[in-house]
UniProtKB/TrEMBL annotation:
This is LicD/FKTN/FKRP nucleotidyltransferase domain-containing protein. The chain crosses the membrane at residues 23-43. Keywords: Membrane, Transmembrane, Transmembrane helix. It holds the Pfam family LicD. InterPro entries: LicD/FKTN/FKRP_NTP_transf, LPS_cholinephosphotransferase. PANTHER family: LIPOPOLYSACCHARIDE CHOLINEPHOSPHOTRANSFERASE LICD. Residues 150-184 form the LicD/FKTN/FKRP nucleotidyltransferase domain. It comes from the Eukaryota. GO terms for biological process: glycoprotein metabolic process.
Amino acid sequence: MYREQLCSLSPSSLLCIFHRPRVCFVIKTCVLISVVVLVSLFIRPLRNTLLYPVWPKPWKHVTTIDLLMMETMTKGPENVVDLPQCLTVVKQTVTEKDPRLDAIFIYDKVSETRLKSEDHKHFLPVMNGKEKRSFIKMFLVLAESLQGAGVKFFFESGSLLGSQRHHGLIPWDDDIDIAIHVNDWLTVRGALSCIEGYVLKVDPIMHWKFYGNTSRYPFIDIFFYTGNDEYIWAITDYTRRNLVAKKSEVFPLSYELFEGIEMPVPRFAELIARKFFEFDYCVSRSSNHKTGEPLNEITLLCSSLTYMYNMFHLDK
C-alpha cells in the first residue's frame, strides 16, 4: 500500500517526503533552463546565437515552425526507379567542337611551383583543360535536354557560389549542382535516361547523378525541391542544409554567364549565395570525388588567392 502511494506521487512531492530542498532546487532550476532554451528555439535571433556552431546558414533566415514543417512533412514521390528500358537512344546535340566550349576558363598557368603559400596547394585546379572542356560539354548536353523537355533548373550549392564568385565552376571543384522541382521528376528521367554516351543514376531519395557511360567521374548532381507559397526546400534531408530559400528570391529565374555560357540562376543569386556561404572565404574540397578519399578542409580569405584566379564581388 505504501509503495503504491509513493508511485502515485509527483517527483516534487517525493522530494518533500525525503526533505531534500537542495535537490528540489536543482531540479526546478534545470526545468526552468529547459523551458527558456525551448522558448529560445522559437525566437529566431536567440536560436541562431544559441546554435551558431551547428546551425546551417540557409536556416538562419527561416522560422523554427517552418523548419519543423519542412522536416516532418516532406516526402518524396513513390516508385522512383530507373527507366525500365530505352526504346531509342538520343543522339548528342553538343559536339567537341561546339564554339561555346572555347569560352570556358582554363587555368594552365596555375601550378604548384608558382604558389605563394603551402596552404594554396589545396586550391589548385582539379581538372586540366581537356577534362574541363569534356565536363562542360556534358553539362551542355544535360542543359539542352532539360530545356528541350520544358524543365526549369537552376544552380544551387557550390555551383551557385561559383556562378557568383567565379562566374563559373569553383576552380578547385569538379562537380555541378542543379535544382529541379520534384513535380518534373518523370520528365527529367525521360529526358536524360537515353542520351548517347551518358548515364542517369536515379535514386528514390531524389539525389540523382548524371555522368559519362565510361566513368562515374566527373558527375552532375541533380537535387529535387518542393515548396509552398513562401519557401522552396530540398526533398533530400541532408541537402536541406544547403537548399532552403524564399521563393520570391529565387523566382523568376535570371540568366548569367557561367563559364562564358548563359545559364539559369536564382533571381537574386548573389544575395542567396551570401546568405548560404561565407562568400569572402574560400574553402578547399572536403573529399576527392574521383577516389572517395576524405580531405582536410582549409579555409582562407579568397583575396589571398586572386593571384591564381579572377574573383568577383569580394568585400574583403
